[in-house]
Amino acid sequence: MSSINTSRLSEKLERIIDFRVGERASKRCPIILQGDASCPATDGTQIFLPRREGHFVSERDNEISIADSTAHEGDHIREYETYFGAEVEVLREQKANLSREFHQRNYAELKENPALAGWIDNIVKDRRIDDQRREQLPGVRRHYEEVLAPAAEYLRPSVKGMSELDSFREQYLQKSLIGRVVEPVPEKHATLLEEVVSITLTADSITRDKEVVSRIYQLLKENFDIHQPISRLPPMLGTGDHSQPSSGQPQQGYGKEVKPREGREGKEKKPKKLDEGKGKLYKPNKNKEDASGNNKRDKDDENIGRNEKDRASIYQQAEKDYGIRIHVVEPQFTSEMAQREESFRDRYAGEIESMKRIFRQLQLKHYGEKRDFQGQELSYEDYMQSELESRVTGIKGTGRYFKRDTQNEQRPAWAVLADITPSTEQYKILEQIRAGLFINAEALGVTDWPMGLFGFSNNVLYVINDFPDRYSPTSSNKIMTLKREDSGGTYLGSPLRTVGSLLKRQTEHPKGITIITDGEDQNLDDAKAAMREVYDQKMYPFLVVIGRKFEKYARSLTEDIGSDHYTVIDRDKVYELPNEMFRLFKTFGIAR
Amino acid sequence: MRCLDYLKHLGLRDKMAQYLVRTNKNEKKTYILRVGTPAEIAGVIYSDFNLNLGNRDISTEDIVNFLSNKSIARVELNQHGNVVAVKSKRKDLSAYTQNGEYKEEGIIIPHRKIAKNVLLSRPEYKALEEMGLTHAYFLGDRSSLSQVFCFEKDADISGVIYARELDDLSALKGLALVIAQRIEEQDFIFEFMRK
Fold this sequence. Notes:
Distance between the termini of chain A: 24 Å
Helix content of chain B: 10-25%
Strand order of the largest sheet of chain B: 9-8-7-6-5-4-3-2-1-13-12-11-10
Mean pLDDT of chain A: 77
Largest sheet of chain A: 7 strands, mixed
Number of domains of chain B: 1
Structural class of chain A: alpha/beta
Order of helices and strands of chain B: HEEEEEEEEEEHEEEHH
Number of strands of chain A: 14
Largest interface: A-B, 20 and 16 residues
Largest sheet of chain B: 13 strands, antiparallel
Oligomer: heterodimer
Number of domains of chain A: 3
Strand order of the largest sheet of chain A: 6-11-10-9-12-13-14
């Protein structure tokens, strides 16, 4: 089985866009690569393609399949350009979604179920453009007959167990796009199906779509209860998504005016993945209580109270164990603090935004999806059956043969420990450390990874944000408020051990501690030993030293655990901190 | 400044024969020019190798004499494992294969395809950027060609062929290299159109 990387074919695919849409069309209609499992789609300007294609055994079949999908979406764009004429430039300047614009102009009166109207429109358009392309291009027809059609049939779902409307929709899709129905059509709907398909065949140009779609919609309205929300059908191979009206955006969920299907709340498109970022995996039954709504807040309040009590006892224990005082920083919502925060936000807006984007992508890429892991119990029956079928048909199966789908449990937990000792007060280093803490926290805050923010000075650990707390405006206010309330003295050892003990309690993996400091420690040996201890407990300490002249301290502090555990940032380049952080993430396999 | 003028200082121009292959989108033709004073047309192909709907037989194109319109050679596209093959009197003059090999009369010729950024990193080729340099081929002693520089501007491509011998057959051999990338990029379209 071989899947191909779409980006490798980008130049060839651009040629196809030029070929189908018009000369230099690839410049105005760029290809946007989406997730591996996404469906080809278009918004009338951009073409969205999956990053990888791997439905077929042969690499060439996969390549032709993605090429044909590009041609298909290109044909949609050509039709929209024909329909809107000169207006298309104006709409594109306004960044309008041409597909949505078409729907709004033509199907606004089909109010009972606009999603259904959009879905019919999709079928009508796809049938027409695919037929035309196959007629014009013998190679496309051959590929369709030999490869796509058998695969499409194979991948269509059974209508058993579907509602009457869904079952009819599925069979209408099959008959229109594949040319035949896989399962027998119920007698009472056979004539209707023939009629609907024959109406579909009359849509020979985009200008006729409104009339054709309205007629089919009316027929469905007369024969089914169309007020029910339509459910998602799997996408038709090679022609994109048929689960919903063509919004032009891949998988946007339900349209605005359509209610979600039964069993789901309006605002809840997908089940929650994680329970408020506290590190436990989502359990489907857990949300049942949420539906009632009333008890939830009370329970949360109870939990908060209990958590605070738990936390206090943990702090007491840590104070006893490590001979340290733990001071929880209180927020100060004054105008001065707000001003200071605002100035930080303005100064580092670019860095924060770019890093937020990276972290957001990382989170989606690595930590959200369901995955099968090696080592889980394999369902041999499914596996053998799928292998046999794929050998006979040449069509790749889903690849999910494990008995249990799990969520990827790899979520990092991160601590940032900033040095606020008197040595940092010279040359405005403290201000830069605060900036570093702020940028770091803002960038990490976009994820739901547990994050701890701490300061230390003279055996006092200042808690800005502990791991169970979500990063919030209060946290950023505390960063601004952070001020030493002791006599000073740089002792990294105890604070690091304390943070390590708090981090160790987290179930997430991997665990890391970013230490932002100027590197001057009054008990270097103890600090070195603490570094080694947390490292031995499988927590990665990373030392970020601000100021080139402190490099020798950094080197000696990390010499026991490896030279790649520290980085030096020039005083005037503190904005490089998030990039450094990201580099460290990559180095240690947290982000790839 | 014309690219040929610029390439003078490479010291090759006086020793070697130069040919220019240039497509013309508006005329839908490709010209093979023998560079000199004046330049002479060594051959014409009635295609700019840009595929559009309605193209006639896409698998072969004749190279014809400009004056007599008689076929002097033939270009085969995407056939028998070759991206481009130039044939004369039923013999393969040159071919660029789908594996990226370059053959002259059936023998694989060692060559290096140099990308634009690599070329532009060398000062002597810097000025070729504004002329639309895309890539170049450097060929070994076994070839009758020395270097082929390929350019692209708008929808037209051109290639300067440096041949070791003043022989139009060398230009025909170089043609395979000049148009190979254009044909490769349209690989899927050929596949779509193939009957």
